[in-house]
Amino acid sequence: MSDGAGREGPLGADFFAQPTLEVARALVGSRLVCDWDGEARMVGRVVETEAYTQDDPAFHGWHLYDEERGMLKREGRGVELFGAPGTAYVYLSYGIHWLFNVVTEPEGVGGAVLIRAVEPLEGRKAMEERRPDRGGRSLTNGPAKLTQALGIDRTLHGTPVTAPPVYFLRGGLAEGQAMATSSRIGISRAVDRRGRFYVDGHPYVSPAPPSDERMAR
DNA sequence: ACGAGGATGCTCT
DNA sequence: GAGCATCCTCGTG
User: Fold this and answer.
1) H-helix or E-strand containing A147?
2) What is the arithmetic mean of pLDDT over A17-44?
3) Residue A188 Cβ < 7 Å to strand C
4) Distance from residue A6 (CA) to nucleotide B13 (C1'), in Å?
């Protein structure tokens, strides 16, 4: 993909402008860096993502999108999902939990990737301070757990995640690791759509419901 | 181990 | 008032 011939740097807007499913797949194995001012740098390996596209009833911007005309039909919650690729879309779930998405597709096309789980690589102590008494894998093995551990909340919403304080570094699967896909978790619409990507068998992947169908690849 | 239920804030799909 | 892209605690085995 396109990040400039193997150069080590944050994934840029051109990366996130790609089709949502490709971004969701390519983000698995990447490193999420949170470098808040004056705090220890935290890095997590992304081990699970989910893709949401504009033609998807489970997508937060679905009701804003006119499929016949291929364009926005009104304003409302989620318009940011049709905005600049590489922008954070953070929202409160169940009134309690912050969930972190990155806007995908070119400007004008709706899409987002939900970051569902990371494996702590650096700054574990700083994460544990935000989640006391939540050691082991439960530190970051869920979409709201990782936002709490990394300190992601509404203040990140609408800001670019292609440069500090929050950005992604390219990465891939380690030796012996395999990518898997499944239907998505925790939604009630379009439940059969296959948009979840994760590292098969990884301990920091979120606990899957019993009916989870997987399709390794 | 697994299931049920509560917490809590925002949008209306 | 219902419905959420969730997590935690407390029951039961």
Assistant:
1) helix A143-150
2) 96
3) yes
4) 42
